[in-house]
Amino acid sequence: MVGYILNLLILISISGILAGSLNFIIGYAGIYSLAHAAFFGIAAYTGALIALHVSTSLLIAIPVAMAICAILSLVISLPSLRVRGEYFVVASLGLQMIAFTVFSEWTSVTGGLGGITGVPVATIFGFSLRSLGSMLAVSLACLALVTFAIFALVRTSFGRNLRAIRDNEVAAAAFGKNVALTKTLAVAISSALCAVAGVLYAFHVSFVNPESFTIDASVLVMAMIIIGGTGTVFGPILGALIIHLLPAGLTYLTFLPSRDLASLQQIIYGAAMVLLMIYRPSGLIGRANVKDTWSK
Amino acid sequence: MLFLQLLVDGLQLGALYALMAVGFAMIFGSTRVFHYAHGTTYVIVGYLFYYLAERLHLPWWAAGAAAAAAGVVFGVLLDRWMYRPIQRDEGSFFTVFVASFGIAVVAENVIIILFGASFVSISTPLTRVSDIGGGIVVSYLGMFSVLAAALLFVFLNWFLDRTDVGVALRALSENPDLVRGFGLNPRKLSQYAFAIGSLLVAPAALVATCVTGLTPTAGHRVVLISIAASIIGGIGSLRGAGLGGLILGLAESLAVWKLSTGWSEAVAFIILFAFILARPSGLFGNRARV
């Protein structure tokens, strides 16, 4: 039972990092990405490959994965962020679909549909993170660092530029802000922070396969921040908490057929997204004044 | 010879893509709703067709008509019950998008519960191929899809050029305020856009269910193709979206000539990127709009 709870808490921390990094672009910059699971996956594969072939130290795997994700994010953001927001949605959806193809087809590197198994235990400063407790401590520390980084970033002039662009792109450009550059940087930072979650995930579950990084995973992360509240610091963490506790709660409702539980969860998330958009677009702990956050 | 066969296959695929894309462009162009659930309409039509024809053994034409009608009803009800309440509060582009996405997720999983996650297809003698000379083979359904696309586009052209509603819809995409000024109701007009847009995607869903089969997650791909084709053709241009769909279908089919089939999906994405990089306004797009 303790193991189950520790495991759940680790997954919640990892999801909190994922949701926080996606919230950074959706909530503060108004850039909608459907490719977050793709970057999560790229980081997880990178982490797994580094662990198997180079070093098991998190201090090597995480920075390398962050750099790779940031650079790859430029591939979609450089062309598509020059133009309107819709283009980025499409480009990221395309990237998400293509990422799955690459994960499952590029067998010499990714191991195809079987994935990469037997990722060794992570180490940090020479300590082995064999026990769940130590892994949880590291995950929570990463969550805190990522959350603090985002908290600090949105308070710099860069963060103010982002919000200015979110609220009125034309006005921001008129004030001499380099809109395309600011947005591109924001996406690169978001992808890099997302990479932290990917590496932790690869080490925690000790195998990676394409199934974990489909569009469904992107949907899940988006549901977390929309339910929790976009553009808030703790909204994504609350969302991650709700979305992980919901399946745990559903398993107690024994009258539900267990076969359909995964689908039922997705239905609940989807319905929550629809109802929140109609009645409370700013999320559970978002600003009550809708127009502040969402009108363009 | 392989090249010619792939060209013919690509034309059939392109006709289906063109139908999806023009339906999407019709809705997006005149109502500015980023209708992610367009793919859901496709999946609903396909599964209903499968259920009626394969499980209840209705004649295929009755099953197809009922499924297409259900698709139209779904589109119009979404507009009335979901998009309208959101837009009443000045909902932004992304609020609408998230809600539409939510509906797509709900529908996808309801279908998984009802029919299972694996793919379904309908066996029909119409998919049997016949030689049209020189060893090139075509199925009746392939011919049907090209014919259906051509007929629907002729109808759409007539509708948008000659009828009052059609003219009003074109006006709505150009200048909604002016339409309101003339005493027309944009809300009412948007229902027509959703009805026609959903009707256009129906034949694509019917044919694809017979030829390639259908999965509950097929909707995401339909949306990707539709938007990619709209961007290639130029947002706001129906002809452009149709041509964009045709280009994507041909490219995807011809890619098999040189690449393994697993990568053919990537081709649509690469073409989309080339356009976003080099000509974001698309083939027929209005440069000022971008």
What can you see in these coordinates?
The complex is a heterodimer of chains A (296) and B (290). In chain A, a hairpin with a 2-residue loop joins strand 1 and strand 2 (127-128). A two-stranded antiparallel sheet of chain A has the order 1-2. Chain A has one domain. Chain A is 72% helix and 1% strand. Chain A contains 13 helices and two strands, in the order αααααββαααααααα. With 290 residues, chain B is mainly alpha-helical. Chain B has one domain (15-217). Chain B has a two-stranded antiparallel sheet. Classes of the chains: A mainly alpha (296), B mainly alpha (290). At the A-B interface, helix 4, helix 10, helix 12 and helix 13 of A face helix 3, helix 4, helix 9 and helix 11 of B.
Give the secondary structure arrangement, pairings included:
The complex is a heterodimer of chains A (296) and B (290).
Chain A: H1 2-29, H2 36-53, H3 58-80, H4 85-105, H5 107-110, E1 123-124, E2 127-128, H6 132-153, H7 157-167, H8 169-174, H9 179-205, H10 215-228, H11 235-250, H12 261-279, H13 290-294
Helix pairs in contact in A: 1-6, 1-9, 1-10, 1-11, 2-3, 2-4, 2-9, 3-9, 6-9, 7-9, 10-11, 10-12, 11-12
Chain B: H1 2-31, H2 38-55, H3 60-88, H4 93-115, E1 129-131, E2 137-139, H5 140-162, H6 164-174, H7 176-181, H8 186-211, H9 218-233, H10 238-255, H11 264-278
